[in-house]
Design a protein that fits this description.
Layout lengths: L2 H27 L36 E10 L2 E9 L11 E5 L2 E11 L2 E8 L4 E12 L2 E4 L4 E5 L67 E10 L2 E9 L7 H4 L3 E9 L5 E13 L2 E8 L8 E12 L2 E4 L7 E3 L31
Antiparallel strand pairs: 1-2, 2-5, 3-4, 3-6, 4-5, 6-7, 6-8, 9-10, 10-13, 11-12, 11-14, 12-13, 14-15, 14-16
């Protein structure tokens, strides 16, 4: 895994968790629709002394930091535990460390970097695949302590490329035998100098003719697959894909049975879930193939953040792969929005026609 891929995954993970916490926090703070909302900051405090009301201090709210558990993955033969600290101020004096418990053992995650208000902490475990249950975690930054908001367990599976392979022991090569020292031969007597012939004047060279540079051969660009968007339509989540730069001569009949296989990640208050789905072919428009999937098959989707992590499309002998995960889509209240009522048509009022009368002469 390259450093660019790790950086991209870290930024996307920070953005997903930040949006999830922001969405859940805003949803939890909304008052019920049947009761009027009450702002506690605008209420008048009871008088405790004879001081006038204008001189009493007004309480202010300061949002504290939040500690969130991210991915637990296998990397280079070790298990990496990722934590995110949200709402960090810019002038943090010391980022400290995350103290957490996994499978009953106390561990420590160190600070890696801070991007805006999000700080990333990473802990390394010297073990392989298995189940890892993070039950609690805490961190103290500048006198403010934050507890873990989403403790959960994750089943970690290491791929063959993630395990460490021991390096072979290098064997010493054969010893080189030094070459014998060459002895100097007898000194040669220099020959007498022969008279040289007169120098001939060379003929003027003709300037070289300019050569034509051949035009570079244009290679056709390979086909590509990308997410065209996610939106709530008719009470369901519609996931759209497009496949462009298809080979010339591709017809809709050839793409009728093709499908986009993808993994849909859903982030809610609990642990994130992964769903494997397929998007069916819809139409071919100006060399671009459109695919659509409706989620879920029955019912309405739950509120949360939806991300397409992986996607593949097989067209003949070629397989297209999604180059990077999609941008997170926040789905909220899908299927519960009131439908617009049809407006009544009113016929225009008819104005009676007035027949002009003849002018009376005096």
């Amino acid at each position: 895994m390259s450093s660019w891929s790790r950086w991209l995954q870290g930024v996307l993970l920070a953005l997903v968790v930040f949006l999830a916490v922001f969405y859940l926090g805003s949803a939890a703070s909304l008052p019920p629709t049947d009761s009027p909302s009450v702002d506690t900051e605008d209420q008048t405090l009871p008088e405790a002394s004879g001081a006038p009301q204008s001189e009493r201090p007004v309480p202010t709210r300061r949002p504290g930091i939040q500690l969130v558990l991210g991915d637990i993955e296998c990397e280079d033969g070790t298990v990496v535990v990722n934590f995110l600290v949200l709402r960090l101020p810019e002038n943090v004096s010391a980022h400290s460390q995350v103290q957490y418990k996994v499978n009953g053992n106390a561990e420590t995650a160190t600070f890696v970097r801070q991007v805006g208000p999000v700080g990333r902490y990473v802990g390394h475990l010297n073990s392989g695949a298995g189940r890892y249950d993070v039950t609690e975690a805490s961190i103290e930054i500048d006198g403010v302590t934050a507890q873990l908001v989403n403790p959960h367990a994750v089943e970690v599976r290491c791929r063959p490329g993630d395990e460490r392979t021991p390096r072979p022991t290098e064997t010493a090569g054969p010893t080189r035998t030094p070459r014998p020292t060459e002895t100097a031969g007898p000194t040669r007597t220099p020959r007498p100098t022969e008279p040289r012939e007169p120098t001939r004047t060379p003929r003027p060279t003709e300037p070289p003719r300019p050569t034509r540079t051949p035009e570079p051969t244009r290679t056709p660009r390979a086909a590509e697959l990308r997410v065209d968007g996610m939106a709530c339509e008719d009470g369901h989540l519609q996931v759209h894909f497009v496949a462009g730069r298809l080979p010339e001569g591709t017809t809709a009949a050839q793409l009728a049975d093709t499908k986009v296989s993808y993994s849909l990640q859903i982030v809610t208050l609990g642990p994130p879930t992964m769903v494997d789905r397929q998007a069916a072919f819809r139409r071919l428009d100006s060399g671009i193939a459109h695919y659509t999937d409706t989620y879920p098959d029955s019912g309405t989707p739950q509120d949360g953040i939806y991300i397409v992590n992986r996607a593949t499309l097989a067209i003949g002998a070629d397989t297209l792969t999604l180059p990077f995960p999609s941008f997170p889509a926040v789905i909220r209240g899908c299927g519960t929005r009131p439908q617009p009522q049809p407006t009544e048509r009113h016929e225009p009022t008819r104005v009676p026609t007035v027949t002009p009368t003849a002018t009376l002469k005096p």
